[in-house]
Design brief:
Znf_CGNR; elongated; about 180 residues; CGNR zinc finger domain-containing protein; Jann2411-like fold; binds zinc ion; mainly alpha; ABATE; two-stranded antiparallel sheet
Length: about 180
């Protein structure tokens, strides 16, 4: 399978890390493999904590109040993390684009570059609203804070899971006094 390295997988990887944070560096690496990344990341001190920082910054984009704020935050992240695009054909992946300097191979740096560009591509091709939190969690006391990357056809995904959709439906039902 050939993966376009700045397609959907990058934003889905970010959501996966945010929703199910790995307990150590190996867990992060395993997740990047799961989502199709082939790059070898040289181990550096504080990789785990620094990737957490990348995800926390990305969550400000998730929680932005409107498209302009979302664009401003994402532009700042791309400015900090990315370089001019380069064509590359490493690891038999086929020719594709990298948006980072060839020498910039640390785990947090690569993730910051792919996640910010992947998020920008997702939002501009599918729609600026197709990123947010599970709506079930908007009810006070509800435990869900899952990130939703909406890749559905109609672009109206509101819940992270059937379980959350059902819980919200039960609440609506009760609110109607039935
Ligand atoms: Zn690549
Ligand atoms: Zn949920």
């Amino acid at each position: 399978m050939h993966l376009n390295p700045y397609g959907e997988y990058a934003i889905l990887l970010a959501a996966s890390l945010a929703n199910d944070w790995p307990r150590d560096r190996e867990g992060i690496i395993a997740r990047t493999r799961e989502f199709g990344m082939t790059v070898a990341f040289p181990e550096q001190p504080h990789d785990h904590a620094r990737v957490r920082g990348v995800i926390d910054e990305w969550l400000t984009v998730v929680d932005a109040r409107d498209p302009h704020e979302r664009a401003r935050l994402l532009n700042a992240q791309m400015a900090a993390a990315t370089a001019y695009p380069r064509l590359t054909d490493h690891d038999g992946e086929g020719w594709h684009l990298h948006y980072r300097d060839d020498g910039a191979v640390s785990l947090p740096h690569v993730l910051s570059a792919v996640i910010s560009v992947g998020t920008a591509l997702h939002l501009t091709t599918r729609g600026m609203h197709r990123l947010g939190r599970c709506e079930a969690g908007a009810t006070p006391g509800d435990p869900c804070s899952a990130v939703i990357v909406d890749v559905t056809r109609n672009g109206r995904q509101r819940y992270c899971s059937v379980r959350c959709a059902n819980r919200a439906a039960v609440r609506r039902h009760r609110a109607r006094g039935a």
